[in-house]
């Protein structure tokens, strides 16, 4: 609700800018033409992930991983890391935060393991692993569109793949050193999750796993995501119509994102680009890229990563600088709770599950991980 209220205020400010002529109508139409495919993808992939979760897909996958680990906590840890990374890379960081978090927590509780280490793995990797593909983060979709040539996953991986690998590795190493030694080396077996409709589970599994490669073959991401959403909605309308509802659509996020695009467009018309250019500097040398990544991370932790990216995008005039900005606004916002929407959603899910998390612990971990990623993750951009 808070997100929708903020978005509503931004819409009002943007409309005022339009009516007063501060923000020209043709510029507003250009913004709309740029963002509608991105927002459509967000809606479609959210529906796919929500319905797959309702079908029990994530519960079954987590239970299979626990069985595959054969009671060895270290192996289960590695498998959860892999699951969080893949979920983030293909289905976006919000999916990992919202849908994977309760699944991983319940899996740990059922096996008498402390759920907090696994919860921290999901939220940190939801942010830091969101550098992998264009579909991993809304900022990536904006950046890949700005790079030209469509949302090409190969070009994106070529540019940011090494940095993404560093971000994931740093996150996993720090989290492993902090948490794994506190967990028992083994855990007992637990009952398999109950599935009410196995046919629906199979349909959800086929659709979801078919969607993953389609998101990286060069199609506009909204196309396969929308097709997958339509198939799953049809399957649920047939088998479990009560699971369908207007709440499947992430309205708060849409209102917030739409208002934000409009407000930032108005600010750019007022000349905010001149201010961000001074803060972000220029040049593709290592120090300049560190500066841009650092400013992006500071702005993201100060306000939020999406407005931070939008405000600084015009200051990133080359592929290397755009990549440095993404490192800052994707992997950097893990210090303050509000820096990433995924972090706030993650906390809401933990509260709903009855898990208490001290924000001080989150801040301390982020204050260690984020600077390391910023320092090391920018290095491949100049190699």
Automatic annotation (TrEMBL):
<dbReference type="GO" id="GO:0005886">
    <property type="term" value="C:plasma membrane"/>
</dbReference>
<dbReference type="InterPro" id="IPR000802">
    <property type="entry name" value="Arsenical_pump_ArsB"/>
</dbReference>
<feature type="transmembrane region" description="Helical">
    <location>
        <begin position="359"/>
        <end position="382"/>
    </location>
</feature>
<protein>
    <submittedName>
        <fullName>Arsenic transporter</fullName>
    </submittedName>
</protein>
<feature type="transmembrane region" description="Helical">
    <location>
        <begin position="289"/>
        <end position="310"/>
    </location>
</feature>
<feature type="transmembrane region" description="Helical">
    <location>
        <begin position="156"/>
        <end position="179"/>
    </location>
</feature>
<keyword id="KW-0813">Transport</keyword>
<feature type="transmembrane region" description="Helical">
    <location>
        <begin position="322"/>
        <end position="347"/>
    </location>
</feature>
<feature type="domain" description="Citrate transporter-like">
    <location>
        <begin position="11"/>
        <end position="317"/>
    </location>
</feature>
<keyword id="KW-0812">Transmembrane</keyword>
<feature type="transmembrane region" description="Helical">
    <location>
        <begin position="253"/>
        <end position="277"/>
    </location>
</feature>
<feature type="transmembrane region" description="Helical">
    <location>
        <begin position="74"/>
        <end position="91"/>
    </location>
</feature>
<feature type="transmembrane region" description="Helical">
    <location>
        <begin position="118"/>
        <end position="136"/>
    </location>
</feature>
<keyword id="KW-0059">Arsenical resistance</keyword>
<dbReference type="GO" id="GO:0015105">
    <property type="term" value="F:arsenite transmembrane transporter activity"/>
</dbReference>
<keyword id="KW-0472">Membrane</keyword>
<feature type="transmembrane region" description="Helical">
    <location>
        <begin position="222"/>
        <end position="241"/>
    </location>
</feature>
<comment type="similarity">
    <text>Belongs to the ArsB family.</text>
</comment>
<keyword id="KW-1003">Cell membrane</keyword>
<dbReference type="InterPro" id="IPR004680">
    <property type="entry name" value="Cit_transptr-like_dom"/>
</dbReference>
<feature type="transmembrane region" description="Helical">
    <location>
        <begin position="199"/>
        <end position="216"/>
    </location>
</feature>
<dbReference type="Pfam" id="PF03600">
    <property type="entry name" value="CitMHS"/>
</dbReference>
<feature type="transmembrane region" description="Helical">
    <location>
        <begin position="34"/>
        <end position="53"/>
    </location>
</feature>
<dbReference type="GO" id="GO:0046685">
    <property type="term" value="P:response to arsenic-containing substance"/>
</dbReference>
<keyword id="KW-1133">Transmembrane helix</keyword>
<comment type="similarity">
    <text>Belongs to the CitM (TC 2.A.11) transporter family.</text>
</comment>
């Amino acid at each position: 609700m808070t997100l929708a209220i903020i978005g509503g205020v931004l819409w009002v400010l943007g409309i005022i800018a339009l009516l007063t002529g501060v923000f020209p109508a043709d510029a507003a139409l250009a913004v709309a033409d740029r963002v509608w495919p991105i927002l459509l993808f967000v809606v479609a992939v959210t529906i796919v992930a929500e319905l797959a979760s309702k079908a029990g897909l994530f519960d079954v996958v987590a239970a299979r991983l626990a069985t595959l680990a054969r009671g060895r906590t270290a192996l289960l840890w590695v498998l959860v890391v892999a699951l969080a990374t893949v979920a983030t890379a293909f289905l976006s960081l919000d999916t990992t935060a919202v849908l994977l978090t309760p699944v991983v927590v319940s899996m740990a509780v059922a096996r008498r393991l402390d759920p907090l280490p696994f919860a921290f793995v999901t939220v940190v990797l939801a942010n830091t692993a969101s550098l992998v593909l264009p579909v991993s983060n809304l900022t990536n979709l904006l950046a890949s569109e700005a790079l030209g040539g469509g949302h090409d996953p190969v070009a994106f991986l070529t540019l940011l793949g090494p940095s993404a690998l560093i971000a994931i590795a740093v996150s996993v190493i720090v989290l492993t050193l902090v948490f794994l030694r506190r967990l028992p080396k083994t855990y007992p077996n637990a009952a398999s999750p109950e599935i009410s409709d196995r046919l629906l589970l199979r349909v959800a599994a086929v659709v979801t796993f078919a969607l993953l490669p389609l998101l990286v073959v060069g199609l506009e991401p909204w196309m396969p995501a929308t097709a997958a959403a339509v198939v799953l909605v049809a399957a649920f309308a047939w088998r479990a119509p009560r699971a369908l509802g207007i709440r499947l659509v992430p309205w708060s996020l849409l209102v917030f994102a739409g208002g934000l695009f409009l407000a930032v467009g108005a600010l750019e018309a007022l000349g905010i680009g001149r201010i961000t250019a001074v803060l972000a500097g220029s040049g593709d040398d290592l120090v300049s890229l560190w500066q841009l990544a650092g400013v992006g991370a500071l702005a993201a932790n100060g306000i939020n990563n999406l407005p931070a990216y939008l405000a600084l995008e015009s200051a990133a005039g080359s592929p290397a600088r755009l990549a440095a900005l993404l490192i800052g606004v994707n992997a950097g916002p893990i210090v303050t709770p509000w820096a990433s929407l995924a972090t706030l959603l993650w906390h809401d899910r933990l509260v709903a599950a009855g898990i208490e998390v001290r924000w001080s612990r989150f801040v301390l971990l982020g204050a260690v991980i984020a600077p390391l990623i910023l320092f090391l993750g920018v290095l491949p951009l100049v190699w």
